[in-house]
Design goal:
The complex is a heterodimer of chains A (111) and B (116). Chain A is 0% helix and 49% strand. Chain A is mainly β and 111 residues long. Helices cover 0% and strands 48% of the residues of chain B. In chain B, the strands form two sheets. In chain B, strands 2, 4, 5, 6, 9, 10 and 11 form a seven-stranded mixed beta sheet that branches. Chain B has a four-stranded antiparallel beta sheet with strand order 1-3-8-7, with no helix packed on it. The chains are: A mainly beta (111), B mainly beta (116). At the A-B interface, strand 4 and strand 8 of A face strand 4, strand 5 and strand 10 of B.
């Protein structure tokens, strides 16, 4: 299972774009990259998933370079309610898999 | 479609008692996962189950912890003879039958266990 490395914490202001980068140097061919968001006292919530290049949905964008050794979660125009912990996960797409959550990145959005 | 349901939301036990945590997956989901989260830490995988089968329990402590997902009814995480170190938030997640992409897991609200 590929290990991931992300910044422990980040601060931002309302209305700014936030980019959180995750390193996964040992990512395997079959691995997908998934990001989850967790608010205090709640379970994690799926944000976005990708394999290569760029993926965009109504919440975020995910940028994955050609070597796939890192990925960047981009949150456009954050608000106070985006204050949460963001987890980057890497795992296989076949078979049951054991999801490994790291410590995540604590994003604090200020007014 | 109701989300993943967990009960109780909060559970207080004294050392030596048993704790039973229940998880009802989303409708149509046959895969259940249990995680434990200590304060200020990430989630730690405990066990992955399908109906009537334990697929991966590599994250489960060898003693006092057990899990099941019967043919009928919720998944149960059971902790016998609880100790203070068992105090944590326990999250359950479920996912549908495996498709071509990595499964997205849907998490419940968690059960917060406090051992006195």
């Amino acid at each position: 299972l590929a290990k991931t490395t992300q910044p422990i914490s980040m601060d931002s202001y309302e209305g700014q774009e936030v980019n959180i980068t995750c390193s996964h140097n040992n990512i395997a061919t079959n691995d997908y990259i998934t990001w989850y968001q967790q608010f205090p006292s709640q379970g994690p919530r799926f944000i976005i998933q990708g394999y290569k290049t760029k993926v965009t949905n109504e919440v975020a964008s995910l940028f994955i370079p050609a070597d796939r050794k890192s990925s960047t979660l981009s949150l456009p125009r954050v608000s106070l309610s985006d204050t949460a912990v963001y987890y980057c996960l890497v795992g296989e797409n076949t078979g049951g898999f054991k999801t490994i959550f790291g410590a995540g990145t604590r994003l604090f959005v200020k007014a | 479609n109701a989300g993943v349901m967990q009960n109780p939301r909060h559970l207080v036990r004294r050392r030596g008692q048993e704790a039973r945590l229940r998880c009802s997956p989303m409708k149509g989901h046959s895969h259940v996962y249990w995680y434990r989260q200590l304060p200020e830490e990430g989630l730690k995988f405990m066990v992955y189950l399908q109906k009537e089968n334990i697929i991966d329990e590599s994250g489960m402590p060898k003693e006092r912890f057990s899990a099941e997902f019967p043919k009928e009814g919720p998944s149960i995480l059971r902790i016998q003879q609880v100790v203070r170190g068992d105090s944590a938030a326990y999250f359950c997640a479920s996912s549908p039958v495996r498709g071509p992409y990595q499964e997205t897991q849907y998490f419940g609200p968690g059960t917060r266990l406090l051992v006195l």
